[in-house]
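Researcher: Here's my situation. A collaborator sent me these components and asked whether they could plausibly form a single complex. I don't have experimental data yet, so a predicted model of the whole assembly would be a useful starting point for our discussion.
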Amino acid sequence: MQLILRQGRIVDPTQKLNEIADLGIEDGRVAEIAPKIRTKGRKEIDARGLLVFPGFIDMHVHLREPGREDSETIETGTNAAARGGFTAVVCMPNTQPVNDSEAVTSFILERAREVSKIAVYPVGAITKGSQGKTLAEIGEMYRTGIVAISDDGHSVQDSQVMRRAMEYSLLFGLPVIDHCEDKDLSSGGVMNEGFYSTKLGLRGMNPAAEEIQVVRDSILAMQTGAQIHIAHLSTRRSLEAVLRVRKNDKISISCEVTPHHLLLTEAEVCSYDTNTKMNPPLRSEDDVEALVKGIASGDVDAIATDHAPHNINDKMLEFDRAPFGIVGLETAVSLIYDRFVRTEIITLERFVQLFSTNPARILKLQRGTLAKEAWADITVVNPELSVEVDSKQFVSRSRNTPFDGWKLQGGPAMTIVKGKVVWS
Amino acid sequence: MWGGSPGPLGAKAPPRIDGNAMASLSQKDLLSVEQLSVDDINLILDTAESLREVSARPVKKVPTLRGKTVINLFFEPSTRTRSSFELAEKRLSADILNFSASTSSVSKGETLLDTAHNLEAMAPDIIVIRHEAAGASHLLGRECRSSVVNAGDGMHEHPTQALLDALTVRSVKGRLEGLKVAIIGDITHSRVARSDTILFHKMDADVWVCGPPTLIPWDFDKLGCTICRRMEEAIDGADVIMMLRMQVERQNEAFVPSTREYYNFYGLTRERMRLAKKDTIVMHPGPMNRGVEIDSDVADADYSVILNQVANGVATRMAVLYLLSGNAGLKLKRSSR
């Protein structure tokens, strides 16, 4: 066999598996999982004490290439992903130019083939230039390889355009990834609207801006039958809105949350540190509590980082002027493992569902499982690893993280893609 | 308690912190009133009171800050605050460098931090900054060795304004605690409203904040005040009425229908003043819109202390500059996780 991982704890919810066993790989695919594999591997890894998961998929990242290679490239972004324990990333279309055409999609895929050690799945824009006016050539992009459509931060304001986009998505069975934000309500805001925006004198983004669009789009999804996925959901009411419509079995709706919305509140902004500025903004304690309950109960389907690298020059500005967003690929797994798995707020199975099984299911990727013959994409986590977040060590081209200096236990030990160790 | 050690005026010493040769604030910067303790506030007010006398002299100058350099860094147009700081600096004999955004490299695209680092290289002792972005002075304070004084940052705070307001009230009323202070107008966009509310609340005054609901931000009461919508409620029994400027330029943002209607509901008229106590004083941080938030016959009446505020502004800023003048390079206490 090409590679055998010996005696790790293998957790794979698709096979209801949670046991210590050997895992054998041949031709880049899972060949066998057994308590003891008798044959000898050409390469063997001692995985005693380690956790072996189907490869983690970050379904919401910004790789910045083409256009902002000073902040991140496909190469540095995917290297950061590999270091962070991810075997696949799903990249948003807000590059320059916007990924709204077959040409940009194929550029990204080609570039990924050249430089990326992990899988890269592009998301196509909903509208041309993400301007919210006319549909992009979704079919052409679909044939080239997009896995979903989204205008992400340039959230579609015109309800009729959104309705058409959902109808059109049915032609290809493409999920619509939805950054929900009513721009009239959030306009000019730089942080969550509430006591802290009042106190800090910063313009607030009304949480209703998100909630109203979650409701609007879930109604449109019900009407059209489109599959929608709420990106970086961040408030209690948004989650409640998703759960309410989910009771109706005619709708396919899922949602993700980010590590920072699970771990930080709007109170962090008090330092005016621009690494606490993101969209959606950090919310209230009550919202955080609801999201944490959501990952524990399974109401929330996935954790995605919304990895948004920004060059230091762009972030070293007044809070009002700095761009939204933080990096997340190299901290997510440790943060969630330490704060939620180790504290037994979520189980190992849920951990894997949030990072692997569900992203694969939502985006219909042939990943997220260690079933026989599946691609051997594997995330190995060392539960005892001491991690101190140090942005200077990031392989990402950007350093904009609010988690610098955090001490965590548990983190990625090895990332395997199609049977090849791409990081350890 | 008032020691005979050298103070800003030599013989007539201001209060000093016990054990210290020279009175000073416990922090490097003055960024907000939120960071000030009650002791800090009293120290500033007492010092300002003793420094007021300088402006009454025939030769309005003391050598206190001789050899110290103060940079006035104004990114927003300002006449009142800027001249007040400048005069305060001159009366303390500091060397002054004035820097305004329109005539500087800022208009050539230089970032705030680069501007600050460049100025810092000239080794000033104090940088006074006015900026339209909330938190701009925090950014500067974090990055600079010099003491930073916030002269207004966006909608966040304007600490020296609140301090001079407190000095004005204390001079007339003899105290701050227990007074009913009504702050009326556009609260949302007012850094003065925030600083005043926090400061008067800290000093145990009873703060009432009043304005149209569209101009009162969420949870403002948690800063330490009672919110009311009807102006009459705010004025009733108030010892101090603080009128805020209605920002006429914001009219098209749908906060209020018109200045006319605003005047009808929130303008301070002689009629409404009848509800107030006999010894109520009226204040305004300026610049005033006569006939919008305040009538001329109120603004110019003898219960108006608006011009006292201006005079106290100079003394307050002298006090702040003096109390910070030895603090450049003080290490900030950083909270770590």
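Model: Some features of this prediction you could bring to your collaborator: The domain at 159-311 of chain B is CATH 3.40.50.1370 (Rossmann fold). Confidence is low (pLDDT under 50) at residues 1-6, 10-21, 333-337 of chain B.
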